[in-house]
């Protein structure tokens, strides 16, 4: 016959069972719970944060830790291992940046940097924005012209380029091309217009006129922002007289348009560049310190982002879809339906891919050497 159990022992046993059951209910089971770190360009911050919540409700065993950096910073920080975290997925503003990362990785480490072929997530184009009166003075025919913008940089004052003397100095803003994709695209299109070619390459960038142009831009843009989202926030906050015209992504220009109207009492105008560059935010699962569980979780996340319901969210934030069959016009509350001045779903001008990395590298070098 078993000896009677001490009441205190029974109490401890009951508590232990209770704690164990609570642990099973609330503590992730090792091997089943996965956390992936997703590092994206800042232009995707709002839609990814919204989709993060939706994804985790459907996939409670996978946690998404979102980080945001300028796209060139994103590449540099990963290759040089400067982050204080270990990325699982990288999503810079265009696939060419991943090609640069792969090339640098192979030369330094050997082998491929990615688990799978990079996947397009969402796309957008480079546009210009300007406050209404400034835009009408600078582009009286309603069409964006790089030559007019260059004259404005040279003259420096609105009174000399058709504007009011009360407007003071002319202020153009673009992002830092050493850190941000949109700044690189701006330099590329401007240099392309300057040399009169549709095929910009390192050879035609050696022209003295291009170096003079880059010097002029660098002198005119004081402390360029590190990313496009930071740029647009500053553009809205500073307003006319401190920020007159800027180059940004169409997506973020559409999404933040209502904020500019609320903050300034009048909203900015969008100008489409012709030609413009289409940039495709592209995701890749990295190899460094990514195990099989993280890789599987990351693949689930990227598959989720490509589904039509998630692509519709990107459209709501001003991006163009990458998944075939998703139509902008069919998505309720898309920003192109908000009567935003200058916004166009269908653009009749020329849309080109981003410049290759050797060309971008040369543009960055010209910027760094500029006075």
TrEMBL record:
Q: Which Pfam families match?
A: SBP_bac_11
Q: Which InterPro entries match?
A: ModA/WtpA
**Gene3D superfamilies, per this entry?**
Periplasmic binding protein-like II (3.40.190.10)
**Any signal peptide, and if so, which residues?**
none
Write down the SUPFAM superfamilies for this protein, in alphabetical order: Periplasmic binding protein-like II
Q: Name one GO biological process term.
A: molybdate ion transport
Q: Which Gene Ontology molecular-function terms are recorded?
A: molybdate ion binding
Q: Which keywords does the record carry?
A: Membrane, Transmembrane, Transmembrane helix
Q: Where are the transmembrane segments?
A: 12-29
This protein is called what? ABC transporter substrate-binding protein
């Amino acid at each position: 016959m078993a000896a009677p159990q001490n009441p205190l022992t029974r109490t401890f046993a009951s508590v232990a069972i209770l704690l164990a059951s609570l642990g099973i209910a609330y503590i992730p089971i090792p091997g089943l719970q996965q956390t992936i770190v997703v590092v994206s360009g800042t232009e995707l911050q709002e839609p990814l944060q919204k989709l993060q919540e939706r994804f985790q409700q459907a996939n409670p065993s996978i946690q998404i830790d979102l980080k945001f950096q300028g796209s060139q910073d994103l590449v540099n920080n990963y290759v040089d291992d400067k982050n204080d975290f270990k990325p699982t997925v990288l999503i810079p503003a265009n696939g060419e940046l991943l090609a640069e990362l792969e090339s640098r990785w192979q030369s330094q480490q050997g082998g491929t940097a990615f688990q799978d072929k990079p996947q397009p997530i969402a796309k957008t184009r480079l546009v210009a924005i300007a406050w209404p009166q400034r835009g009408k003075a600078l582009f009286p025919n309603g069409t964006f012209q790089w030559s007019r913008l260059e004259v404005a940089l040279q003259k420096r004052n609105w009174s000399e380029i058709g504007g009011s003397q009360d407007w003071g100095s002319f202020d153009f803003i673009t992002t830092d091309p050493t850190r941000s994709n949109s700044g690189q695209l701006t330099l590329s299109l401007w240099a392309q217009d300057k040399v009169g070619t549709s095929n910009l390459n390192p050879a035609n960038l050696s022209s003295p006129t291009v170096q003079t142009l880059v010097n002029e831009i660098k002198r005119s843009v004081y402390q360029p922002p590190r990313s496009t989202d930071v740029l647009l926030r500053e553009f809205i906050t500073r307003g006319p007289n401190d920020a007159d015209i800027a180059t940004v992504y169409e997506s973020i220009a559409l999404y933040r348009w209502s904020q500019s109207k609320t903050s300034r009492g009048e909203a900015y105008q969008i100008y489409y560049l012709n030609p413009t560059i289409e940039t495709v935010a592209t995701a890749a699962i990295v190899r460094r310190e990514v195990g099989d569980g993280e890789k599987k979780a990351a693949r689930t996340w990227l598959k989720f982002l490509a589904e039509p319901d998630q692509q519709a969210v990107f459209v709501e934030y001003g991006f163009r879809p990458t998944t075939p069959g998703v139509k902008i016009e069919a998505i309720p509350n898309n920003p192109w339906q908000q009567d935003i001045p200058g916004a166009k779903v269908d653009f009749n001008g020329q849309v080109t891919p981003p410049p290759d990395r050797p060309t971008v590298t040369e543009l960055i070098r010209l910027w760094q050497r500029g006075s």
